[in-house]
């Protein structure tokens, strides 16, 4: 399936320890402002403090993996090539502004079904992309976190065996709750996320026993 086309992008940095924890991050409304179906690099706006926080978490040993639903491809609103150009611009901006290198970017290009649920294994709230990244980058899911601005992000993280943070800045509007959709924590800015992960996620050599679910 189309996922295989993403394999070359998944190259762990040589400095990364095997079985490191990851921060899986959503793109729209979390890493960057949500501009629906945008693939224009000129309209890319990072959330305040995101780059700086990612730099610190990377230094602390977290792999950084962006996981994004891009149904605009399946809807025919933009092409995979257009998204790839946006991804390159996003990576370059992070590199130049904060010295951050993303370890991986994985996307689901598919449409949901008529009920709005995933019709594939990769669209969040399904966990397929997190599991794929974990296998290919040798990540420790039990010490990893997912952060996103919707409960679908929270659920995807939990389905993958991670802890999940809701970036609670207005992205979620439906609030359809279930145990899998209950965030471990809510944050409203990237600086809060940094403190939380460094305190609870621990450095990569921390015991897997560290960081129990907090609520
Ligand atoms: Zn998919």
From TrEMBL:
It comes from the Bacteria. InterPro entries: HAD-like_sf, HAD-SF_hydro_IIIA, HAD_sf, Heptose_bisP_phosphatase, Histidinol-phos. Keywords: Carbohydrate metabolism, Cytoplasm, Hydrolase, Metal-binding. CDD domains: HAD_HisB-N. It is found in: Cytoplasm. GO terms for molecular function: hydrolase activity. PANTHER family: D-GLYCERO-BETA-D-MANNO-HEPTOSE-1,7-BISPHOSPHATE 7-PHOSPHATASE. NCBIfam families: HAD-SF-IIIA (TIGR01662), Histidinol-ppas (TIGR01656). Belongs to the GmhB family. This is D,D-heptose 1,7-bisphosphate phosphatase. It comes from Roseateles flavus.
